[in-house]
Amino acid sequence: KTPPENINDLRQKIVQECRAIPANTFTISRLDPKFIALHCQEVGGKNYEQSMRHVEDFVRLLMSSEELRLFDKIRVFLDEDYSSAEHFTALGNFYFVHESLNDVLLWDFNELSFIPVNGKDVHSGNIEAVSTKEKAKFPQEFFPECKWSRKGFLRTRWSISGTVFDLINIHLFHDASNFIAMETFPSVYSKTRRRALEHTLDKFHNDKYPNVPYFLFGDFNFRTDTASVIKVRFQLQLQLVFDKKQGRN
């Protein structure tokens, strides 16, 4: 646990990090966007049991930042309930809508209809019952060695001035062992990532909801060919040693 005397230092650090979001917020002033979508993974960090309580400060400071003062419609979805292993993804979706946009609707996945977006709503903790999002973990048999981890997707559907689209936050599997990743190419982890991605895309194309254009962005955990990278690096090191022995520069 964090000692009480370090709480203020921790809060100050959170403030500094929040002010650095997205690309020093200068990007917002420079590009003057009217709609901002921010997708986060591993909400609460690696040690989420201890760190999840600090997420509220992060969200509050972000929403109150000067650069976002003209975004009067906000929707935040934070999957924070780590007590539910079968549902917990630690995904966080942030959406900021500029005051100049009036015709903004959000899809209700239960009612199968759009609802108006007004005001600022933050859905956090256990968000299983929130119907304006769709969230799922990948099937357990997809997980390497069938060990549960925080991998899945969180989708929202928007209608802005009559244009309908999905925004999907996805977190694919990482390489749990570099040694295992080196054994084959594509590695067993790459194959698992591909399987999970294809499963997700197939679901979106064949579920009960109307098909619409979508933007898929998050953490794909793509990797290079580990064995080839190490081989090239080793060959370069050998060549460097040989050149030095030969007195070459």
Describe this structure in words.
The protein is an alpha+beta fold. It has two domains: 32 residues, no CATH class; 214 residues, no CATH class. 32% of the residues lie in helices and 22% in strands. The chain contains eight helices and ten strands. A hairpin with a 2-residue loop joins strand 8 and strand 9. It is globular. It is an enzyme of class 3 (hydrolase).
Concise structural overview:
With 249 residues, the chain is α+β, with helices and mostly antiparallel strands.
- Report the average pLDDT across residues: 82
The low-confidence parts are: 1-5
Quickly give the structural class.
alpha+beta
- The domain count comes to 2
Number of strands: 10
Main β-sheet: number of strands, strand sense, barrel status? Answer: 6 strands, mixed
- Alpha-carbon distance between the termini? 54 Å
- Global geometry: globular
Secondary-structure topology with pairs:
Elements: H1 7-19, H2 21-24, H3 26-31, E1 35-40, H4 48-51, H5 55-63, E2 73-78, E3 92-97, E4 104-108, E5 113-116, E6 120-123, E7 134-137, E8 152-160, E9 163-171, H6 178-181, H7 188-206, E10 214-216, H8 226-245
Parallel strand pairs: 2-6, 9-10
Antiparallel strand pairs: 1-3, 2-3, 4-5, 4-8, 7-8, 8-9
Helix pairs in contact: 1-5
Question: Which descriptors apply to this entry?
Answer:
single chain, 249 residues, alpha+beta, 6-stranded mixed sheet, 4-stranded mixed sheet, 10 strands, 22% strand, globular, disordered N terminus
